[in-house]
Amino acid sequence: CSRPQKVCLCPFLPVHPLKVSTCLYIIQHPAEESRVLRTVPLLAACLPPDKCKILVGRRFSEDRYPELATICRNPSTLILYPGAEATNLEEVAVMSPSPSVMIIIDGTWSQAKDIFYKNSLFRLPKQVQLKTNHSSQYVIRTQPTNTCLSTLECAAVALAIMEKNKSIQETILHPLQALCSFQLQHGAQIHHSKEHLLKNGLYDKPMPKNKRKLRRMELLVNNVKI
Question: Coiled-coil annotation: which residues (predicted)?
Answer without folding.
Answer: none
